[in-house]
Amino acid sequence: MKNKALEAFYGLPQEVKFCTKCVISNQRPSSTVEFRHAKNEKKQTIGFGKDGVCDACSYAQTKDAAIDWNAREDQLLALCDRFRRTDGGYDVVVPGSGGKDSAFTSHVLKYKYGMNPLTVTWAPHLYTEIGWKNFEAWCHVGGHDNILFTPNGKLHRLLTKLAFTNLLHPFQPFIVGQRIIGPKIASKFNIPLVMYGENQAEYGNNLDDNFEPKMDHKFFATSDPKEIILGGVPINQIQKEHDFRINDFAPYIPPSGIDLEKQGIEVHYLGYYLKWDPQECYYYAVENTGFQANNQRTPGSYSKYSSLDDKIDMFHYFTTLIKFGIGRATYDAAQEIRNEKITRDEGIHLVRKYDAEFPIKYFSDFLDYISIDEKEFWKTVDSFRSPHIWEENQQGYNLRHTVE
User: What is the mean pLDDT of residues 67-82?
Assistant: First the structure.
């Protein structure tokens, strides 16, 4: 009979396993945008092969051994030739924040491949000092036109709070906005090409997506506000309970996939055409766009150059630690092991040292932003701890399983 105390929330695998090549576990969810998420809802998780190697590591091996990157670059050149304009108009939309990845993407498209990108930014919840500096450098040093889109702050705070309390996923509204802002701007300004950086499938989502250069328009199939759920709550319910109009939700309603097809808009990933390596993107961005690493490591990790722009970002990774036992150091180390920047033993050491670190630096900012107190914060957090991942004792909570 199954031990009730070891119940697995979210449909996660009951047995916790770690990849034999990197440090990721089989508890990592493979969906990037969670429109719904409840404790009893089945979630697809990262796959493991018979050899104990995770899907992401398997794809990393494929990148090295089985993809002709010269041929892929030829495809990129052909794509650019198909969309490049010579009348002074924009020919590609590049969504991003001015971080290392979007800085690399926009700069290489403009200065190596001769495109004229319009960069577009879905504003962070709360800019960090280094994040704002890098955003300005992206425009002024990197040499890009930019639209900085800031959603209704009153509504965005509410959605972030609902996402935290209902899903323990405070980044959900931001992820939704960030994912759709590129195609929305492309549609509005009739720019036929959108180019994101890497496909998240590279890190363990549906691996088949890595072999498709374009984002599936099915992602934009639901443009009916009645069918969209934000923060675990249907839009029409939020309207009734919080006195918002349907027009206030316009930034969160994706463009219709049918409309995108009619306009001839294509959404591509640069990581399909160029071998993606986040650390190499960092070096390129420093040299060409004025990008700066932080002067201190990010809480919860050892990294100083990744996801620097938002004070709320580190609480997103803290909540993944709570729900899945996977913190920010795990994500960073797994990625760098796959790219042969560090060894697995080094990654294990970094995970043990930093993964469970609480991001105290911006804690008061986070509480103020979503208007809750510390007691409510911890009550909410603890309610999302899955018994098969966490054990409670007199000192608090400890992870039942750690990478070895």
Answer: 97
